[in-house]
Design brief:
heterodimer; A: two-stranded antiparallel sheet; 7 strands; globular; B: six-stranded parallel beta sheet
Amino acid sequence: MGCIENLNYEKILPLGASFKECREYVEKNFSEFWYVDSGYKLFDEYIIGLPPIALGIDGAKIVFPYTKPCHGTYLLAVEDADEAARIRKTARKKK
Amino acid sequence: MTGGRHPEKNVPTRALLVLGCPEVPVQQALALHIAYNLRKQGTAVHAAGNPAVLNLLKVSDPEKHYLPTMQVLEKCIEEIVGKKRDCELCIVFAHSDAGISYAATLRHLLPESRLVLVIFGKYPEPLAAIADFPCEKIVEKAVHNPMQLKKKINGVFGWAA
């Protein structure tokens, strides 16, 4: 397992966003988005939440929800071309 | 691993207790109460949570009478995703939306398990409203006093008061 704090991330939605808010934000604000289920591994972390979970991609930037057990969920953006390519291969387009 | 029931007693063989951040005191007391009752009926109990809540439970149960095995939540999720761990009964404590997110995750990862979601804290009702996935919900405003929530838990599992 990795640690999200080791990534150079940008906060898109603040802590306390619901998984539904995160999904709707990604669907409304990104022309490219993909769906995964909870338990999908991204940046060596397991994605938490109610499926389908939307991941937004803008070039090499990946936007995804991240849940901290003590705090809640927030939406993060991280630049990583390899992970973006992996999402395009392994995630799905349909909910 | 596969789930199962004691054929003679119709009780689950393995239960997973998922705990949230320990900032609400009733959680740890009720976790031990649930573990005690499950073990008494013959169910093996495993607990998962963050290091703080696990340490609180270790201090309260130094000889591991109630919770013999525990692990951090991320490792537990990893094992469930990797099919190295499952359970027939999963009980999730939630006093924040993070707890609801973990319960939703476990609903997805353990589709065959009975999922009981214990929603508590100062404002449990809004949390109960966002838990719109299949599970049994036990909802009670409880921060310091565990008695009403304990009564509801006992009612759901058929345990004596």
